[in-house]
Amino acid sequence: MLYSASGDEVTVAQLYPLLALRSAVFVIEQASLYQDLDGRDLLASTVHIWWQPADEPQGYLRLLRDPDGTHRIGRVCTVKAARGTGLGALLMKAAMERVGDEAAVLEAQTYAQKFYARFGFEQAGTPYDEDGIEHITMRRPAHLP
Length: 145
Known about the structure:
The chain is α+β, with helices and mostly antiparallel strands. About 25% of the residues lie in helices and about 30% in strands.
């Protein structure tokens, strides 16, 4: 089942397993030591979107607002067993429904550029190293009505 909650509405019981999933994927599996808790998870403007068919979440992403109002998608992850099943696309579709016609940005691991391009994101800049993993900034421009 697909869930979403803003940062000021998400419960501890919901957020804890989401943080554990992020840590399992980014810190443990990808061996990327970084400070995941950045103070943005509990903001009213943050939206957590996750897929949880049973006891544990299987996929997750976070939708933020940058100071200029641009939507920022981040922390996109799925458990290893769910990769290749379309779960990432389901999460991205849910995020893009919230974004609507507004601009959005994300920092993609370079191997995932084609995946994000399916949602209208284009490369913006050159690849860079973040915690030992090559990333690229991708933007989707606002769509005028």
